[in-house]
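Write out a record, focusing on structure:
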Amino acid sequence: MAKRVFLIVLDSVGIGEMPDAHLWGDEGSNTVGAIRRHPDFSCPNLEKLGFFNIDTVGGGVKSPLGSFARMHEASKGKDTTIGHWEIAGIYSPRPLPTYPKGFPKEVMEEFEKRTGRGTLCNLPYSGTDVLRDYGEEHLKTGKLIVYTSADSVFQIAAHESIVSREELYRYCEIAREILQGEHGVGRVIARPFDGEHPFRRTSGRHDFSLIPPALTVPEQLKSAGYDSISVGKIYDIFAGVGYTESHPTVSNDDGCNKSIEIMKRDFNGLCFINLVDFDMVYGHRNNLEGYAKAMTAFDERLGEMLPLLRDEDILIITADHGCDPSTPSTDHSREYTPMVIYGKGIKAGVNLGTRETFADIGATVLEWFGEPTDKVYGNGFLHEVAK
């Protein structure tokens, strides 16, 4: 009988500061702690699975249906790439490079030389503010708007009337070739926009990620003949390595729709899902109300997913970092993440405590399929929760 795993990453849904949060300026961060105080926050399905039974989250039910753990990030980082890589079995001993003062002269000169275009900005910037401040000059000069953030990213914005999407993607590929080694940022991101002032981003965003530096769980499963399906930006995060299918999304709701359609299909393997709106739309914009409502909306969709699980399926819900919308910072936060595991073959109510690494999730996925775990980072916990 086919086995299926649905691994859902609620992007940035952290559950409280890690012991080293002070090293990252994230003391006091607690994403779930902040949003659950809002009156529009209601997550009864997560509650019954055991989400609030996780250590230090609080407010759990007496008899949760799933098992659960608090996940500690072993890698040095608090970004999307490192978080997802660790979930999938990679330990990153060094944080990916960031550029609070912009990219160095040698990088920018090489980029301008190889693209044949000048550049504007080269500073950390909000994606909407950078269009406001540099959009008009870009239209006049044709220079590319290059900017970064607190994340390890090199972002290129261009108006679609000046630079076609295909050309912008080619420029991103050039940047990706340049940005290796010492300057190997996690992602080069195409940010096309259109319209007149105030400009608006289009749906043509595309991420060009670093190739994972070691074997990942999806790659191992694919090599063993299993299906390895990406929903959302998962495919981009792993530079496409290890996936048999990719289903890009435009919103959390779209991601849930596509996940539900996949749950109705026959396949044998992993469906790895990222729901990015929590982070991109609400966390980075310190929109606490929107974040709370988005969690409520996901919980409602979760109610549609649970009846679709088959006897040999497991569902795992986790996160990749925090992004507390109640703090002054608009950056990610160094937080523990939640983990809930549920299925007919999984025991109810097992508290796995605090795991040493996100990678224990990936190792457990391999165990579910009977695959060896010695080639990836992490220790599986299937023996503790399997019936």
The mean pLDDT is 96. The radius of gyration is 21 Å.
